[in-house]
Model the fold of this input.
Amino acid sequence: MYKLGFIGMGNMASAIQEGFINSGYIKADEICGFDLSEIATEKAKARGVTPLSDGHEVIRNAEIIFMAVKPQVVEKVVAPLKEDLKGKALVSMVLGYDFAKYETMLDPSTRHLTFMPNTPIAVGEGMILLEDQQTLTDDEYDFIKKAFESAGSVEVLPSHLMGVGGALSGCAPAYIYMVIEALADGAVAQGLPRASAYKLASQTVLGSGKMQLASGLHPGILKDNVTSPAGSTIKGVKALEDGGLRAAFINAIEKSMGK
Done:
């Protein structure tokens, strides 16, 4: 019996598997899964995950099932598996499918939890949101929560905030990569080699985030601590304000929620 079984092993599921395996909390040979993609299946095999023939086999052979398919196909995938999922534990990361929606899709005996991860879970720096409504047993919930904590940080949110929380932590890595790229481009334009520019920008983003988390200080205070009067930083801050940086990020979160 495998501890975890994945139905769908695309990019996000792969990141979760890598995070669990790299943390040492779950071994690769304790994970099985199924994906229609041969490429995804081969990548899973390469990290030591056992590929199975279909979703039915995954459910039969795993203690906790991860639903990791695209939103547009989830109901088509779940319907033929409803009987198999009776009495089982299901954790789902399918966008838009919260506790209430799964209650209408699953047998009452199926225990379930909706979560929202982000790709940095692959390197142990994930941000994982757990919906506060769930029906896992205490042992199942404790096991899953610790698994996520082994590969990142966990936040429990009420159902009505999962959407905006997911828009922030789930979509923002793409925005931050754009920030890293843009900062590096600016430095390259001034003569810094590309590899060094990416390293400096990425480590600066990582360090700044960790400093805010460790200190608990308002980001504005940390920004002020770096900006000396008439110094180079405040001139750069003004340039960013002139470019509408804050408004752009605020609008990005709004648009990512479909508004």
About this structure: The mean pLDDT is 96. Strands lie at 2-7, 31-34, 50-51, 62-67, 89-92, 111-116, 126-131, 152-157. The chain has two domains: 2-157, 165-256. The two ends are 44 Å apart (CA to CA).
